[in-house]
Amino acid sequence: MANGQENLIPFTERTEKEQREIARMGGIASGKARKEKATMKATLEMLLNSTSKSGQTYKELATLGLIKGAMNGNSQNYKLMLELLGELTQVEIDREERQISRVEELLTKLEDEAKKWY
């Protein structure tokens, strides 16, 4: 069966010249990707620090939106705020997500059982 790998040549079986050319192309692509990422980051920082018509920065407005979402019961907003403040570690986030997943599974089972009775 053809899975698209029969024509591949392992890197170690290529000539030094081919290996150098492949590495050079990879370095060029990596540099381009880093430059694009740096440009996106600089643009985002500039926009977030610019002032809106209300006189607040967009960073302040985004933070307020995050807080409003948490106040309206969005647990993802609340977890993000805690993480940004350094009060929630990745281990705690993973544990909480597993617990939420288990609760959702239980709710689904209960809904299925309730459908049988009604």
Q: Which properties best describe this structure?
A:
mainly alpha; 3 domains; 4 helices; 118 residues
What does this structure look like?
There is one protein chain. The chain contains 4 helices and no strands. 73% of the residues lie in helices and 0% in strands. The mean pLDDT is 87. By secondary structure, it is mostly helical. The radius of gyration is 25 Å and the shape is flat. It folds into 3 domains: 37 residues; 37 residues, no CATH class; 30 residues. The chain starts with 15 loop residues before the first helix and ends with a helix.
Helix content: over 70%
| Average pLDDT number | 87
Provide a count of the helices: 4
Indicate the radius of gyration in whole angstroms. 25 Å
Q: What is the β-strand count?
A: 0
Oligomeric state of the chains present here: single chain
Determine the strand fraction and express it as a percent band. Answer: under 5%
- State the low-pLDDT regions, or none: none
SSE pattern, N- to C-terminal = HHHH
Reported for the largest beta sheet, the result is: none
Short précis:
The chain has 118 residues and is mostly helical. The protein has 4 helices and no strands. The chain has helices at 16-49, 58-71, 75-84, 90-117.
How are the SSEs ordered, and which strands pair?
Elements: H1 16-49, H2 58-71, H3 75-84, H4 90-117
Helix pairs in contact: 2-3
